[in-house]
UniProtKB/TrEMBL annotation:
Protein name as catalogued: D,D-heptose 1,7-bisphosphate phosphatase
Keyword Ribosomal protein: no
Gene3D superfamilies, per the entry: Glycogen Phosphorylase B, HAD superfamily/HAD-like
Family to which this protein belongs: Belongs to the GmhB family.
Organism, scientific name: Paractinoplanes toevensis
Amino acid sequence: MSELFEAVLFDRDGTLIEDVPYNGDPARVEPMPGARDALDRLRAAGLRLGVVTNQSGLARGRFTAGQLAAVNRRVDELLGPFDTWQICPHDDTANCHCRKPAPGMVIAAAEALGVSPARCVMVGDIGRDMDAAQAAGAAGVLVPTPVTLATEVAAAPAVAGTLTAAADLILRREALVTPVPRPGRAGTVLVVRSDSAGDVLITGPAIRAVAAGAERVILLCGPRGRDAAELLPGVDEIVEWRLPWIDAQPGPVDPADMAALTERLRATGADEAVVFTSFHQSALPLALLMRMAGIDRITAISEDYPGSLLDVRHRGVPPGLPEPERARSVAAAAGFALPAGDDGRLRVIGAARRGPGEYVVVHPGASCEARSCPPDTLRGIVTALAAVGHRVLVTAGPGERHLAAYVAGDLGEEAGRTSMPELAAILAGAACVVVGNTGPAHLAAAVGTPVVSLYAPTVPYGQWGPYRVPNVRLGDPAAPCRDTRATTCPVGGHPCLSTIEPAEVVSAVARLAAPAEIAEAVA
């Protein structure tokens, strides 16, 4: 089994072949440049291939079922064989679950191939292709054409200029999480993720990879990530320490504190260390202390020259890579891989989704102001969800009780402040979670609950959005705050999130309910 993906699904028109509107003539089928070579390289890597295509021309009478079949046979002759074909014959008026942006065909393709949607990647040329992939929990790569809208490019989880580049990206992502050989099982390994709860959660798959190849795993984390660290599988011991070069509100560097940390690192008895950082953080200050503590082998990402601080200097990680995969690539560089049967999703101890859920959770808070949806917008969302019959629970983080009460209004139910395990249990019982880019979004992904992401584009969605769980992104992806990493909204009125209409959220919740209905139909 491959480390990351098992199948690649393609849109047909504009992606595999030139887009000829309502084409019923096999003679007019023309492959996109580089298509055959890209597909053959993916097949050679052991990936199964499928086609997922909207064909409303059948419903509109623009071609017959026989003509559609003849065109598809010609595609197979030129570019196949494909392992599955999924075709939606409906138009937009049918309100079906198969027509993209609904996830039905992606889910059906995964079912036909015997894989999870989370182990699939969808390649297409318009936003509907990406929306369908995300709503199914699959990865997506957009290959724009002249008809692709700028907002679709801005919203895409990943973008490649050509089919060749898309294949390169998929194979590169696969290679990054494929471990290098290492001499046998490790002893005690110190893993590090000193950041917020969400950052710790998205490092979980990489930590499980280390745990699969080590006798003992000790996690060094900061106080903001401690509660999440307690929920991670594979962790035997936790060391909590605030690192001033990582912490969001750092104090001065205290020599006595650094000396104490060095001795604490020595006391772990770790044989080696794997340091996980975000793309904007440096592992080198901690690596120096680890070296002074006598840790023999240290692995981390470092674009800066590390001298003798690192034994394994991991480089070449492409920008925008999902953070869980970035962390897994560090573990792989150290020689650690997930065990067979672990699909690489986020996971926590003690809570997991068991059914379609009985209510919708709205979590109004966020770790910084720039990522927080305005309270009035959220209050309108709660009202709209309740109006169509949803039971709505409003959860609160530390210091957010008054915010939750306002957002809940008269129609929502306040869940009150909860511990991390309690919040995980609430999220596991939800039909979906409406939340910004903050820790509970990743906690929802870790328990397998779909996410309606009210996402400020201050950091890339493909990098920080909900990972390998059905999701719908809402908000302006091309707002002026895009990629600024701002913590306070730099634009008056918070236009990236305040413009979200409650009806969009209602529609998104309905789209995420479709997979449960499809699963019931398949069963």
